[in-house]
Amino acid sequence: MLDDLTIRISDGSKEDIDRIALLEQECFPVPWSWDSIAREITNNEASRFFIAEYGGQFAGCVSCWLLPPYECQLGNVAVSPAFRRRGIATALLQRLISDAEAMGILDITLEVRASNTAAIALYQGLGFEQEGLRKGYYQGKEDAIIMWRREKLTVKPEHM
After folding, report:
1. Active-site choice (24, 71, 111, 138)
2. Which is the catalytic residue, given 15, 53, 123, 158?
């Protein structure tokens, strides 16, 4: 039994490359390579990784490109199967959204497998809406749903 069952989110760094690469292999049919992750963390100023620890153990990560002032492109959200259904993906995404908003970025986009109903529900719960479809996006076989979480402008009618 874990003593401290809290979720701790922090910025990913080059020290996290190995465990992010292992998590990618654990979670995705076509994972990012170690070299791709290392390049994103060390050489891409727009790239950010957030990592989650649960009970002191590495449990998940999220990657994105923060492109101020306009948008954020969500990369991968990965949570180890041993730690799923504990709010970790939600906590990671809330941190990403918070950091993006702090930079003035209010529009966030992502692609998700059309068959990944759990992820789609997660994204919808955080305000993402389907806006498009990429046919055969995943290995030419599965469609990707394009989702956006956009700034909602409230237009007030002028006084008459």
Report:
1. 111
2. 123
